Amino acid sequence: MKNTATNSDQASRKSGLSGRHWVIGVPYLWLILVFLIPFLIVLKLSVTDMSEASSPFGSLSHFENGILQIKIRLASYAFIAEDKLYLFTYLNSVKFALLTTVLCLFIGYPFAYFMARAKAEWRPMLMMLVMLPFWTSFLLRIYAWKGILGSTGLLNQFLLWLGVIDTPLAMMHTSFSLALGMVYGYLPFMILPLYASLVKLDQRYLEAAADLGATPWKTFWLVTIPLSKSGIIAGSMLVFIPCIGEYTIPELLGGPETLMIGRVLWDEFFINDDWPMASAVTIVMLVLILLPMAIFNKYQAKQEEGRI
């Protein structure tokens, strides 16, 4: 048996491929196929004109009289920088994404903390309650809020029946309806990473803080919160990043004052039929997302090096 294993190891070494190469290489190949290649296609579209946009793999360079010429069109990016509409939509998207992230954190943290502190036999049921909305179509769940928040919806009818209001409230197509729909849609993505972090929390740290005279509230702020930082960061990223490019919720629940970049992308692609502009808007949005993430990761790496 040992000789067989040795022979297979030697064969894999001769071929230059080992199990480690396959484990690392397959995910990287998948990322190249589903992220890098589509990103390069979109980047190429953003620096061409509409006549060349129909060919995603078309070349940006060509030979003319023996001279290699590279044609890069930056008019779409210049228009984005000049038009205040795009600046407004980018800022609006970041604003609502931040608001949604903060609200999900304030709502999700107590729920995740309760789940982590519940009895072991109760945790699967609580986890199922968090994941239960995923059993229904995301579009149907968001669309249901139109029947709840509308002028003739369930909430207005209930408030009228109680006598709290005399006329229906205008809740649809407002910042309130958009924020409510975003929090509802993305709250599970905050709860699950927080729960995974809190359930592994070593209770001896809490006991040590109590023995040293710390109050429960002080223990929570100085011990529990720092030790669950990884879950807070993961949950915030899972909520913030998709919220910036969200299209369905702003389209169904938002209004003119809640215009977000996802709707602008849709309009540029399918209404204006301007692929270069839509691609440029996409590239700028990716830069707005990836640049803060890169800076944050670099800061985290420096912190880890300082601790070591």
Approximately what portion of the residues adopt beta-strand conformation? under 5%
Number of domains: 2
Helicity range of the residues? over 70%
CATH architecture of the largest domain: Orthogonal Bundle
Radius of gyration: 26 Å
Order of H and E elements = HHHEEHHHHHHHHHHHH
Write the topology of this structure.
Elements: H1 2-15, H2 19-46, H3 50-53, E1 61-64, E2 67-70, H4 75-82, H5 84-117, H6 123-131, H7 138-149, H8 154-162, H9 175-198, H10 203-211, H11 216-227, H12 229-244, H13 248-253, H14 261-271, H15 275-307
Antiparallel strand pairs: 1-2
Helix pairs in contact: 2-15, 5-9, 5-12, 7-9, 9-12, 10-11, 14-15
Please, could you describe this protein's structure?
By secondary structure, this protein is mostly helical. The protein folds into two domains: 1-73, no CATH class; 74-307, MetI-like (MetI-like fold, Orthogonal Bundle), CATH 1.10.3720.10. 74% of the residues lie in helices and 3% in strands. The protein has a two-stranded antiparallel ribbon with strand order 1-2. β1 (61-64) and β2 (67-70) form a beta hairpin. α9 runs antiparallel to α12 (229-244). The model has no long low-confidence stretch (mean pLDDT 83).
Quick summary of this structure?
Helices cover 74% and strands 3% of the residues. With 308 residues, it is mainly α.
